[in-house]
Amino acid sequence: MKPFSPLENAAHHRQTVGTNPWTAHSDISQLQRVLNMRHVLSISLLAWLALATAATVSAQSSLLPDAEIEQELEKTRTAIRESENSVDRLDRSMLEPLNQLGSQLMDAGEYDEAHSVLDHEAQIIRASEGLFSPTQIPVLLRRIENYGYQRDWDNARESIEHLDWLLTSNEYEIDETFLESLLSLVDIHLWGVADDRSDLQDFHFRSAKRLNDLAIRAAIHVWGESDKRLPALRYKLVIQIYLQMASVEVGGSTGIALRRYTETGLTLSRKDARLFFYYTGLGLLGRNLDLYANQPSPDLEGMALTSMYIADWNVLFGNSEAAAQAYARSHELLLESGIELQQINQYFAQPKLLPDLEFADDWVTALATLNEKPETSLAGVDSIALNFQQWSARFPHHRAPVALGTEPITVPDEDYALFSFSLAGLEEVARYYKGRRKNTVSSPQNLELLSQNFNRQIDRFDLEDIIMSLHFRPKLVDGIPQPANSTLIYQLARQ
Q1: Model pTM score
Q2: Is the CB of residue 346 less than 8 Å from the CB of residue 233?
Q3: What's the CA gap between 93 and 394, in Å, rounded?
Q4: Does position 146 have pLDDT exceeding 90, yes or no?
């Protein structure tokens, strides 16, 4: 791939955003319908607080033994039966115990009973507040998640389409809770990319992008174009764009569908699609850079970390020169913002898997994401190893962009391999696999298998190709990429 323009030309690349032939239809009309709403209802904050409380109860119950979990379930069931004996089945006083029971049942894997409970909860809300009640949205989201955990994606898609219609039916106030609902639906679609039928991957990819675009435009309407909450929404879209690009490079029906830009079936070439994805993502990151730069007092930390993400983006697309310039610019801005050199070098002392799924726009948050890295060392390994957990068997080269449908990353005892490897800064590496030449930047070299424990049949050559296709933010000293050695735990996705 020929080198693209460096960081200084990002403003030019941003002009390409908005000319996407794939998204210039339904999402715009839907946003117009939302912005021209006639009936405005405020989504109940109490409902979302109840959902958060239920999630806390669920997290706590997951730590209990099975017998204690069943006791807690029976307690809540008894409370509901007693309530039904004294009040009407659709009385609003039933909502709180139903909310709690639904969360407990989902956590315990009792999905059939959970579905009935969530249905009951939704009926009460609709009976008392109407069919378009915003209070029902958290319940509908949980019901879709319940279908997903049952692997019942036929019913999940039907519910997704219903909720999509509700959210774009000009019945709701555009506020932060409305945006959270859109983004929750984006996450469910990304879950579906990995978990639903393979022939529907492009549907989920496109739907997630459309809703994310809609959330960005609605956020600009609510917050204004200079609000510092916008970059996180754009970065969420950047991750999706990279995953779409990766699917196009793999090929197959999903890749062809994502390259299609007309209803008659015209498609971009892989090369043109790659360029399109590159400039679209760079344009979004460039807008973030402008937002921080154009604050009343320029946000130097936000600019520095956005420059880091721009450098990461260039690494992912094999543009080493632009990546080096952007990492150097990030370093300069961090120093200018008052961060000590020793602290900067400590932050960049270890390679980091790309794309970085954690967004940060200030130094405190960036350090917090670094410190939250799980302990994943294995016996015989002197250092903390990087941990890679497959998104799914369909996406062995990528980590899950959302938590839905995944399990916490922990020290594995099976279905993993431990590798040591070296990185040569931003040096471009060319290699051949199955007759195809691959050029990568900041990808593993000198790969060595240290240990493995698989309960499934794994082709070692395919596994090594996956590891050597990964990309890393290089170790940086004073903003300059350095060679580094590291270890990686590669875990298979759950079956």
Answers
A1: 0.83
A2: no
A3: 45
A4: yes
Segment 279-301, tens digit of pLDDT: 999 999 999 999 999 999 999 99
Other CB atoms within 10 Å distance of the CB of residue 472 = 22
Contacts of 265 (CB under 8 A, 6+ apart): none
In a domain, 482, yes or no: yes
Structure tokens at 166: 């509700």
Q: Tell me how far CA of residue 46 lies from CA of 59, 104, 123, 341, 489, in angstroms.
A: 20, 19, 18, 46, 42
User: Which residue, among 478, 470, 34, has the nearest Cα to 486 in the 3D structure?
Assistant: 470
Nearest-angstrom CA–CA distance, 478 and 456: 44
Name which of 6-15, 94-103, 378-387, 398-407 the model is least confident about. Answer: 6-15
Domain total of the chain:
1
In-domain check, residue 448: yes
CB 221 within 8 A of CB 177: no
d(CA 103, CA 53): 10
Q: Which domain holds residue 384?
A: 369-491
Residue 379 lies in a domain: yes
Residue type, 317: F
For 51, residues 6+ apart whose C-beta sits below 8 A from its C-beta are 99, 138, 142
Structure tokens at 183: 């983004």
For the four alpha carbons of 329, 330, 333 and 335, in that order, the dihedral sign comes to: negative
Residue 105 lies in a domain: no
Half-sphere exposure of 454 (CA within 13 A, CB side): 15
